[in-house]
Structures are given as C-alpha cells and as structure tokens.
Amino acid sequence: MNGKTAFVLLSGVLSGSLCACVQPPDAAAPAAPTPPVAAPAPAPAPVAEPTPGNRWVSIQEATCERLLELSQDDRAAASLFYIGYQAARFRSRAINVAAIPNAEAWADSYCAEHPGRPAVEAFRQAYLQILRR
Prior knowledge:
Elements: H1 3-21, H2 64-69, H3 72-89, H4 100-113, H5 119-131
Helix pairs in contact: 3-4, 3-5, 4-5
C-alpha cells in the first residue's frame, strides 16, 4: 500500500470516528444523573492461622499415631520432609519423584498397622521398599 492511499484511508477512518462522537445541537438534554450507588463493603480478609512459634518436634520420636492425626495438607508436608530426611540418611543423589505417592501410601499403611511406632521408621521402611532401587 502506498503512502497516499494509507493517508486517505486513515483520515477517512479518523474523521468518521470523530463525527460519530459529536452530537447534533438539537439533541435532548441529558437525563438527570442517577444518585451514586454505595459500593458493597469489601469482604473481610481471611484470618490467617498463627504459625506455631518455637514448637519443637522430635524427628525420631514423632509417632505414627500423631502423623495420622494431621490434616491432609500437614501430613503431605510431613511425608515430604521424612522422605527427604531418609534420602539424606541414605546419601541418595536422586529420587524417583513418580514413586513418592506410593511411598507415602506405604508409610500411611505402616502407620495404621503400627500407631505406636515412630513415623521416621515408617518412612525408612517406605524408602527402602519403594524409593531405593
């Protein structure tokens, strides 16, 4: 497209859009403005649960029973911690990420059968059975 054609097309588009915005002088007066509507009050921010401060948990002595009492999210976090802990103890340099859910399920089953045993033992066994291959 040459410059002259582009200029003519562009000026036609611009003048057409400007003409569409201008109202004729015979137009009726605008209606009275509507009273402002009060905006709904914002929802209160969710209250965050306080994080436990200086709460120490013995890695070696936490029981399977206590692990099973945790919420699903907390149990998943504890499972990942214990799997990482076992990987460090066995000096593993890699881990099969796809096998982690199976190791968690294995440890949960172990804990259900042995609630008085340490949770670290459940994850040691799960690591040996599922993750260390």
